[in-house]
Amino acid sequence: MIELPVMKTVGIIPARYASTRFPGKPLVLINDKPMIQHVYEQACKSRLLSKVVVATDHEAIFAAVRSFGGEVVLTSPHHQSGTDRCFEAFQKLSGDYGSVINIQGDEPFIDPEQIDSLASLLQSAKANIATLARRIDNLDDLLNPNIVKVVMDSHSKALYFSRYPIPFQRNTDKDHWLAQTAYYKHLGIYGYDVATLAIISRYGQTMLETAESLEQLRWLENGHAIHVALTEKEGHSIDTPDDLKKLMNKS
Fold first, then answer.
1. Distance between CA 99 and CA 42 in Å, rounded?
2. What percent of the chain has pLDDT above 70?
3. Distances from the Cα of 42 to the Cαs of 14, 104, 187, in angstroms?
4. Are the C-beta atoms of residues 149 and 163 closer than 8 Å to each other?
5. Where are the alpha helices (DSSP H) in the chain?
C-alpha cells in the first residue's frame, strides 16, 4: 500500500497595529516580551505546523518579530480581515503547503494542542475550513456580545455565528438557559486548505458579516461549510487594556 505524503501546514499570525480599542497591542509587553512574541513562541510548539510566520502591516511589529528571531512578512494595511492578510502572506511564502492555520495575534497563551486539532482536521481531509468552540458554562459569557456564539448541525458544521445568545429560548427565563441547552463560545482560530483560502479571500463583505461584524459569516453566506471542533480549553484573547489586566491578574 502506497502512503500519501502528509500535507504540510503553515501557521500565519495576522498582527495589525491599528486597533480601535487597543492600538499597538501586538507590541504591549507581557512578562518583558511583546505579546506577538508570546503568540509566536506558543505556535512554534505545535507538532503539526511546518512553519510559523507573522503577517503585519506595520514596520514596528515587523522589526519586533525580527528582533526575537521570528519569521515575518509585511502586508498591505488595507485588508478587511485577518483571513485576507493571511492569504497575502501565504502568497509571499516559498514552500509546498496544503493548508493554513490563522492564529490570532492577541492570544499570548494559546495552547499548541488547539492548533494541532485544526491542522489534523485539515490534513485528514475532513474539512476545508475548520475552527474551534468551547461549551459556555456561565451566564455572563452567554450574554456578553463580545463573546461570539456558534450553533452546529449534527455533523459538527456551523449553522450560524452570533454575538447574541443562540438559540433563543422563547419560553424559558434567561437565568435557566444554560440548564436547558448547550451553548458554545467560538474561539477565533481558523484553518483552511489552500484552495479554499484562495476562494474566500476574493469575496466582498456580506450583509450578515457587516451586521454582526464577524468575517466567518461571509463564508457561510457564500455556501462554504465550516467544521467546528470542540475543545475544553479556554481561549483568552486580549481586545482591550482591561482584558490584559484581567489576564495578568489570573496568571
1. 19
2. 96
3. 15, 12, 16
4. yes
5. 35-43, 59-67, 82-91, 112-123, 139-143, 177-180, 194-200, 207-212, 216-221, 241-250
Which amino acid, 249?
N
- Whether 182 and 166 have beta carbons less than 8 Å apart is answered as no
Helix (H) or strand (E) holding 176: none
Give pTM, 2 decimals.
Answer: 0.92
Q: Can you read off the three cell numbers belonging to residue 150? A: 456558534
What pLDDT, on a 0 to 100 scale, did the predictor assign at position 4? 45
For the chain, which residues make up each domain, given as ranges?
A: 9-131+185-230
Q: What three-state secondary structure class fits 154?
A: coil
The architecture that CATH gives domain 9-131+185-230 is Alpha-Beta Complex (3.90)
CA 163 – CA 90 distance, rounded (Å): 30
Q: What is the tens place of the pLDDT at every residue in 25-81?
A: 899 999 999 999 999 999 999 999 999 999 999 999 999 999 999 999 999 998 888
Instruction: Say if residue 23 is preceded by a cis peptide, omega within 30 of 0.
Output: no
**Rg, the chain, Cα only:** 18
